[in-house]
Amino acid sequence: MIPANLNYLHTTVLLRQLAAGGAKRAVISPGSRSTPLALVAYELPELSSYVLTDERSAGFFALGLSKADGVPAILICTSGTAAANYFPAVIEAAQSCVPLIVLTADRPAAMRNTGAPQTIDQVNLYGSYPRFFADLPEAELSHDHARLMRAIAAQAYAAAVSVPQGPVHLNVPLDEPLTPIAQDGEKISEILNLLDAEKIYRVPSTTAPEPDVHAIQYTAQQAITSLCGLIVAGPDAARTTAEADAILHLGRKLGWPIMADVTSGLRFLSEPVIPYYDIFLREETLASLTPDIVLTFGAHPVSKVLNAYLDRHRAANTIRIQPHKLGQDPQKRANEIIEADIASFSNMLATLVPASRDSLIYEPFRAAAERLRAQLAHETNASCEGIYVLRAVREMPDGANIVLANSLSIRYADALCAAEGKRYSVFAMRGASGIDGTISHAAGIAAASNKSTLLVTGDLAFLHDLGGLAASKFAPQLKILLLNNNGGGIFHFLPVHEQESQTQFEVLYGTPHGLKLAAAAELFGLDWHMIDRPEDLSILGKNAASRTLVCEVRITREENHRSYTAFIERLSYAVNT
After folding, report:
1. Are 446 and 478 contacting, i.e. CB atoms less than 8 angstroms apart?
2. Among 256, 247, 272, 290, which Cα is nearest to 358's?
């Protein structure tokens, strides 16, 4: 179809090039100034479009789409504060290395700083977070200008998918006419024909470097002489199956335990992956076992107990392997940082080290984990949120997605969930570790993957993104475990709970809302169930994916705090019996 006028040629060239790079989804928040972008994206056959009017929700929905398969989603919004609402998602994308393409419509340069309505300074709006930014030139009816637009779009796409991946921002000034009024059809056809006759324009993206031979040899020498080696896989240690399998193979070849964060990509694999370390490392006999070398992959682990263990044993030679130069070691534990492709490094190292006896710390850790696994098989405490999380994950089918909200939800899963014959893809927003966009993010993952997806969230994260339930219309396979403790339950586990008066604590940290969250069922057309016992969560495995399912669990913060504390103490006792 021939673009209607100059603005539609301008946006068609831009979006066609992004699609040629590999983009296949666009999330549109409609507005007047963005009309040419929105209409072209909606009608472009290469793009699947999702329309969400709330830009903050749209940003996190697009983040979830991008995470599901690593293909950057395109965000489109109008001018003004609409673009500012994308900022939290842009930050999360940047800090968690997720590719994202942000297109913000803007007024022409002559209208900026004039008091024109719905106009703010959108140049470098997101500061240093985008991997690439361009304030695009205004539309011109020329072949050279169309080629320039195509080149900028190709450069932006390459920047989004290059290592380290992240968001890019193209600010798109558009003048009247914004509607598809037919103008200059003959000239536009000529320009498009010239573009189509040219070769596809591509800018190469950069990948993680291949391992340096000297770095591999050094690491192999250290590993061969080790007696008590350990592998730590933090969040996003393995983003692909190839990376996960390579780290697992390395661990098996070395005979070293792998302490894998629940969001590492390895937690639901078999030995030598060791779960439950958040529990058994609380016991001094195990916490005192000293590694002599630690290979670390991924970001900062969720578990405070594991982090305390690693800080305690700083004398270990810690070698960090990561695919980029971004900081991932806030505690400065690493003696060496090796920048390399994760799968290549792990596979090459595995070929250089001989199969050897197990690390001396492997068997004590494995035995402790097995005792805890046996104990957890019989736990059914109905007043402990952690048990509901464990049961919900167990009910999900093999290959499902598990999405964990920050705060207590991810900590329960990290402490209690382990491989039980199913392999899950686990997602969380650990870049900035906020509670923004929790529902929208999960809905995006479910929509792009078309897989059964479980979101585990607390009530405050749920309320914070209540409007994100509108995105559930694109994700009927989404299931939500809602842990409603009427406020900020995590603060009961922090020192502030003991230091503040009860009144101050409740007002500032407990933050009770007293809302009937089930009212959202009618508003958004949800299948809502009140859950009184962990076994009631069997509905997660039976429910047909015709609309989003919500399973609400109500436990008071005080009761859950007492119950979970006693539960962990009971499990810790089981480690030594």
Report:
1. yes
2. 256
Spatial separation of the C-alpha atoms in residues 211 and 197, rounded to whole Å: 41
Token pair 């504390």: residue? 565
CB contact set of 513 (below 8 Å; sequence gap of 6+): 459, 460, 463, 486, 487
Contact 238, 208 (CB under 8 A): no
The strand pairing partners of 258, in sequence order, are 231, 273
Confidence of residue 543 (pLDDT cuts 50, 70, 90): low
> For the purposes of burial, counting CB atoms within 10 Å of the CB of 121, is it exposed (0-12), middle (13-18) or buried (19 or more)?
exposed
Q: What is the DSSP string of 190-219?
A: HHHHHHHHSPPP--PPP-PPPPPHHHHHHH
> What tokens were used for 198?
């040219």
Nearest to 537 by CA among 391, 399, 396: 391
Residue-wise pLDDT for 425-461, tens only, equals: 999 999 999 999 999 999 999 999 999 999 999 999 9
Whole-number Å distance between alpha carbons of 18 and 25: 10
Strand pairing report for 401-404 and 132-135: unpaired
344: which 2 tokens? 């290549």
Closest CA to 497 of 508, 486, 485: 508
Helix axis angle, 385-395 to 408-416, nearest 10°:
70
Kindly report, residue by residue over 322-349, the tens digit of the pLDDT.
Answer: 999 999 999 999 999 999 999 999 999 9
Closest CA to 510 of 540, 482, 487: 487
Residues ≥6 apart with Cβ < 8 Å to 194:
143, 146
Residues forming a β-bridge with 320 = 296, 337
In angstroms, the Cα distances linking 28 to 61, 177, 365 are: 11, 20, 49
CB 7 within 8 A of CB 177: yes
> Is it true that the peptide bond before 99 is cis, omega within 30 degrees of 0?
no
**Alpha carbon 169 to its chain's center:** 19
Going along the chain from its start, the domains and CATH numbers come out as: 6-197 (3.40.50.970), 213-359 (3.40.50.1220), 379-575 (3.40.50.970)
The closest of 534, 576, 232, 233 to 372, measured between CA atoms, is 576
Pair of tokens at residue 70: 């690593």
As a whole-number percent, the residues of the chain with pLDDT over 70 amount to 99
| Neighbouring C-beta atoms of residue 530, cutoff 10 Å | 12
Residues 6+ apart with CB under 8 A from 324: 97, 163, 164, 208, 339
* Alpha-carbon span 370 to 504, nearest angstrom: 42
Say how far apart CA 247 and CA 238 lie, in whole Å. Answer: 8
State pLDDT tens for residues 56-107: 999 999 999 999 999 999 999 999 999 999 999 999 999 999 999 999 999 9
Q: What is the pTM of this model?
A: 0.97
Q: Which residues pair with 231 in a beta bridge?
A: 258, 295
Q: How far apart are CA 397 and CA 453, in angstroms?
A: 9
In angstroms, the Cα distances linking 197 to 143, 193, 194, 304, 329 are: 12, 6, 5, 58, 49
The pair of three-digit structure tokens given for residue 474, joined into one six-digit string: 């694109």
